[in-house]
Write a structure and sequence with these properties.
Layout (H helix, E strand, L loop, with lengths): L16 E12 L12 E7 L2 E5 L10 E10 L6 E7 L7 E8 L10 E6 L12 E11 L2 H9 L14 E6 L2 E6 L8 E8 L4 E8 H9 L3 E11 L12 E7 L2 E4 L10 E10 L6 E8 L7 E9 L8 E7 L6 E10 L4 E4 L8 H10 L13 E11 L5 E3 L4 E3 L2 E7 L2 E4 L10 E10 L5 E8 L7 E9 L7 E8 L6 E14 L1 H8 L16 H30 L3 H17 L4 H18 L9 H23 L8 H27 L4 H20 L2 H18 L8 H8 L3 H7 L10 H7 L3
Antiparallel strand pairs: 1-4, 1-8, 2-3, 2-5, 5-6, 7-8, 9-10, 11-12, 13-16, 13-20, 14-15, 14-17, 17-18, 19-20, 21-27, 22-27, 22-31, 23-24, 25-26, 25-28, 28-29, 30-31
Helix pairs in contact: 5-6, 5-8, 5-9, 7-10
GO biological process, one term: regulation of neurotransmitter secretion
Membrane topology: Multi-pass membrane protein
Protein name: Multiple C2 and transmembrane domain-containing protein 1
Length: about 750
């Protein structure tokens, strides 16, 4: 659909810059896309193939009313504005309802126009998909350069879905406006013109949208959600039961619960956090599904939580009935103020300000060890520059290669972005990011992408840095690695990182459940990964077999001196055995390995087998990516693949468990080894002075009364939570810092190129 005839006053020469004010009024008689004969419609505006606006979702309504305004900057009126309407389906691909387009050349300048657009589906051109009502106002402008810069920064989509807010507010005079730019925009400069009535002239006001971009990334609060249980859910399986799990969504943030098999009253007791960007709150969409192996999961029901109706700094117990289904969910929801997350220029440094540094040190001093246990520490990351990056863009007749790099800094579920430096393989960002540390065993991930206007961002390199390995105040050049973190790629990135934390809080947090990431890559079957996990499992089993063979050799007297010593030790231990000797023996093992390390006799071996397998896996991933382009998506959704992926993951978990125990005693992470020494020392003293029956009695009373004392307590195993912080051999390899190539050294470059 186009609207009206061409405007005779439209300038045919230089189109200049225009501002299009669009009011999305309502829809009428939209096509039904859901089973209940209704839809959950929302609208997208696209200009030049780029999304410039997305409306809110109106649930279960074929005649929705939006009344939303968008201000769109345009530099070419000959590009039509496309309007697309979709039906929102949580957890599935949204259904297309219909589309239309608005011919901007048909609009009269400086005149409010009501527009009626009929929606069409290209696959069913004869079907009526409904009607959309708009009000539009087109006004001229003369800031073409600013618009072109904005157009360069239009929508960037990456595979990791680093979404920002879709709109940026600003104030001119006494009026608040909202300018819509793509949800993944970066650095932009836009000029607004205001009329000075007293002087009769136009004043040009410059507004740096880089500041707005920075603010749009920063969350204003934390939504803590605890999924307790479900009650009286609908039976979806032939046995009269279900295998339920729950999906949560707040904006671009998603969370999926574990699957509880064969029950209509599941107990989840899972806790997670969402970032709250909107000051007025937001809507958490919740859907409940029944897991079916080998076929599509069954929909059980849905519900929503309107956060704007909940008071802050207070825990709310909610019993949410499920719509389009049976039963209800029990949740705890708490809204708290934002954590200390900031983005600033290099000139603004919190730790260099003596007063601010003292406040931060005071906040994490030993005197504050029991105040706000979840606030473990403070992290400051200076992203300075990168050098010799990979060229991702090839332009011009001479194949001149450049990249448009930007940087993504991640700490668990906290993600912040730098601006984009265009056409540069040696970009300088000079930005400072600060984060609150919830877990000192988290890994800081810094990824460099190449912004691509027409498709998803290209990966350039990545580094993963465990917080406990950071040297404060030291500017280091980190060699960029590939996606799997198994080998180097081209380029280095210069970072300066500072970590301040409370050791007591960090130790307590180590014994609590680990935070799960919202966005993780979907598991897929890999022959090489399956083989790798099998070999890792084999190594753990062979270590146990070797120990058993060693003990058997003592019984066989293969070495008489060794067997005699073992026999005397056996008599002594059995005759004088006390329970405290078990943690004492583990203490001695830790102490012995620590002595070997400090004396230079490190018995830790570099596992070249794992490294070789990781490199082979990377090559196979590249082949799989190419093969996946040739094969359809549905061909990979077989039940046998899901079974193989499950076996593959089980092997990974078992192998990782054994490797983590080994790495605890090998002092791979000294903080955790020292924590183990403290814990084992305490256990040794307790078991020495307190009879075992009293310890068992206290343990039993605690277990039996835990549900009474705290009905919504989340079950956890402190030992398993501790081991989850110890890296496996694969993680040690991934976090291993590569040595910088001498060609990247600035001093070497100066010598080689004195000019």
């Amino acid at each position: 659909n186009s609207f009206g005839a061409s405007n005779a006053d439209f300038p045919s020469g230089d189109p200049g810059m225009y501002q299009l004010d669009v009011t999305l009024r309502r829809g009428q008689n939209l096509a039904a896309r859901d089973r209940g004969g209704t839809s959950d419609p929302y609208v997208k505006f696209k200009l030049g193939g780029k999304e410039v606006f997305r409306s809110k979702t109106v649930h279960k309504n074929l005649n929705p009313v939006w009344e939303e305004k968008a201000y769109i900057l345009i530099d070419n009126l000959r590009e039509p504005l496309y309007i697309k309407v979709f039906d929102y389906d949580f957890g599935l691909q949204d259904d297309f309802i219909g589309s239309a387009f608005l011919d901007l050349t048909s609009l009269e300048l400086n005149r409010q126009t009501d527009v009626t657009l009929s929606l069409k589906d290209p696959h069913y051109p004869d079907h009526d998909m409904g009607t959309i009502f708009l009000s539009v106002l087109l006004a001229p402008g003369d800031q073409r350069e600013a618009t072109m810069l904005m157009r360069k920064s239009w929508k960037r989509s990456s595979k990791n879905n680093y979404d920002l807010l879709p709109s940026m507010p600003f104030k001119t005079g006494n009026f608040w406006h909202r300018i819509y730019c793509p949800s993944k925009c970066v650095l932009m400069t836009v000029f607004f013109v205001s009329l000075n009535k007293h002087h009769g002239i136009f004043q040009t006001q410059s507004l740096r949208l880089s500041d707005l971009h920075r603010k749009s990334q920063l969350w204003r609060g934390i939504v803590s959600v605890t999924l307790i249980e479900g009650r009286e859910l609908k039976a979806m399986d032939a046995n009269g039961l279900s295998d339920p799990y729950v999906k949560f969504r707040l904006g671009h943030q998603k969370y999926k619960s574990k699957i509880v098999p064969k029950t209509l009253n599941p107990q989840w007791r899972e806790q997670f956090d969402f970032h709250l960007y909107e000051e007025r709150g937001g809507i958490i969409d919740i859907t409940v599904w029944d897991k079916d192996v080998g076929k599509k999961d069954d929909f059980i029901g849905r519900c929503q939580i309107d956060l704007s109706t909940l008071s802050k700094e207070q825990t709310h117990k909610l019993e949410m009935p499920l719509e389009e289904g049976e039963g209800y969910l029990v949740l705890l929801v708490t809204l708290t103020a934002s954590a200390a997350v900031t983005i600033s220029d290099l000139s603004i440094n919190s730790l260099e300000d003596q007063k601010e540094r003292e406040e931060i040190l005071k906040r994490y001093s030993p005197m504050m060890m029991f105040h706000n246990i979840s606030d473990v520490g403070f992290l400051q990351v200076k992203v300075i520059r990168a050098e010799a990056l990979m060229a991702a863009d090839v332009t011009g007749k001479d194949s001149f290669s450049k990249s448009d790099p930007f940087c993504v800094v991640e700490l668990n579920n906290d993600r912040l972005l730098t601006h984009t430096v265009y056409r540069n393989l040696n970009p300088e960002w000079n930005k400072i990011f600060t984060f609150n540390i919830k877990d000192i065993h988290s890994v800081l991930e810094v990824t460099v992408y190449d912004e691509d206007r027409d498709r998803s961002a290209d990966f350039l390199g990545k580094v993963a840095i465990p917080l406990l390995s950071i040297q404060n105040g030291e500017q280091k050049a980190y060699v960029l690695k590939n996606k799997q973190l198994t080998g180097p790629t081209k380029g280095v990135i210069y970072l300066e990182i500072d970590v301040i934390f409370n050791a007591v809080k960090a130790s307590i947090r180590t014994l609590m459940p680990k935070e799960q990431k919202y966005i993780e890559e979907e598991d897929r079957l890999s022959k090489q990964l399956l083989l790798r996990n099998f070999i890792r499992m084999k190594h753990c089993i062979m270590a146990l077999v070797t120990a058993v063979c060693y003990i058997s050799s003592c019984f066989e007297w293969d070495s008489p001196p060794r067997s005699l010593a073992a026999f005397l030790l056996f008599l002594f231990v059995v005759w004088n055995f006390e329970l405290y000797m078990i943690p004492l023996a583990l203490l001695l093992l830790l102490a012995w390995n620590y002595f070997l390390i400090i004396s230079g006799k490190d018995n830790r071996q570099h596992d070249t087998v794992v490294e070789d397998m990781l490199e082979d896996e990377e090559e196979e991933d590249d082949r799989d990516d190419k093969d996946s382009e040739k094969k359809g998506f549905m061909n990979r959704l077989y039940a046998i693949q899901e079974v193989c992926v499950t076996v593959q993951n089980i092997l990974d978990e078992i192998a990782s468990f054994g490797e983590r125990i080994k790495n605890t005693f090998n002092w791979t992470v000294p903080f955790l080894s020292w924590l183990a020494i403290v814990a084992l020392s305490v256990f040794t003293v307790i078991l020495y002075f307190i009879p075992l029956r009293y310890i068992v009695l206290v343990w039993g009373i605690n277990k039996f009364t835990k549900k009474i004392r705290n009905p919504y307590a989340i079950d956890n195993n402190e030992l398993l939570d501790f081991l989850s912080r110890v890296p496996s051999d694969v993680q040690v390899m991934q976090y291993h810092e590569l040595k910088q190539d001498s060609t990247h050294s600035p001093s070497k470059r100066k010598k080689n190129n004195p000019a």
